[in-house]
Amino acid sequence: MKKSLVLAMAMALGVTASAYAANPFSDVPAGHWAYDSISKLAAAGVIEGYGDDTFRGDRTMTRYEMAQIVAKAMAKGANVEKLMAEFAEELEALGVRVAALEKKVDNVKITGEVRYHYGDKRLKFKGGRKHKLNESGLRTRLYFTGKVNDNWNYVARVQNQQWFNDYVGNEGTDINIAKLEGRLGGVDVVAGRDDDVFADGYIYDGEQDVIKMTYGKKYYISGAYGKLTDLNEDDEDIAKKFWAAEIGSKMDTFVNGKIGYLNTKFDTDGKVLFDGKKNVGIWYAGAEFKLHKDLALKAMYLRSNRDKFAEGIKSKKDGYVVGLEYKGAEAAEPGSWGLALNYYHQGRGTYLAHTIDGWTDFATGFKGWSFGGDVTVAKNMILSAAYYDTKALKGHQEENAKAKVFWTEFKVTF
Fold this sequence. Notes:
- This protein is mostly beta strands.
- It folds into 2 domains: 3-105, no CATH class; 109-413, Beta Barrel (Porin), CATH 2.40.160.
- It has helices at residues 3-12, 35-43, 63-75, 81-86, 88-93, 98-106, 268-273, and strands spanning 108-124, 130-147, 152-163, 171-184, 187-198, 204-215, 219-227, 239-249, 255-266, 279-292, 295-304, 318-327, 337-347, 365-378, 381-392, 402-413.
- The protein is elongated and about 95 Å long.
């Protein structure tokens, strides 16, 4: 048995150099490099040696002998995927159904995240009236990924949201992602309830009932059709069907870009908000410039076909967002960190459910800036904080409305 094979099997069963077991073989001295591993494997019943109490580690094993050891290790619950693949033929001869066993063990994977957030929001309206809002909560998400076949998975997300704003104990649990995702020929497909963004979230960030198709990697084209369900929360009838299309690039170069369009039809309440119109269409074009390996400049321009809203309110048809990003916290790299600075100037018709945690609920649209950062305090634990200073665009009685928001999060992934 070779050194690498002994170590691989030992690690598969969780054997470490500190493992202690009685020496079962007379020809494996205590000072031997494989002493602890061999002793532990023997104690676990994975290897037996020979009838004369010898291990004979220098003897070349047959593939069937090795397959028998792998089969025993599998029965002990060892993670021996590489060994199973190597000895699949012999394992089959021993009656070990490798594919069936892998399916039972790995067919469904569970991952998740827990996020605590605190937000301090201070609003100031025309005439000096002020309003303060504080919110905090704990959100838990569990992702269940089931393997349908080599090309398709089923993904579900169970979410529990607890609110700590009062002493009532408000909370809710629901399944807010339920989708099939995979490849059809050379096309990536998502179908079902998903949670995604359009125009980097500057138009929409939230759940949707959708079918999405994307073709290409470095250069891609994508399309989506469905319903923007987050707009219809609180029993409101805002949106009906939508469609969207985007082309762009994702390369390791100085610049990447995208151009796209989103159009959604309105339901009863949506028509009221948008001055009786049946739909809104929004064009967008964005680019990211890699100024340095750790520094990126991002910019996006958006233009809507709507500038009139309920009660005769008027707003600009266009908008833009410009930002700088330096580094960024990586969950797997403790000590990694990042900073981000953004400026926003968007007419009300250019966004439906904005991605930022700052205040955007102004009748005429908003402008302002944000600054924030994040740091990985321990593996899979990220702490972030951001400050938003926004105010309404001019042209309405709310033109002097202002908002300052301080937002913090602590996120744990597993």
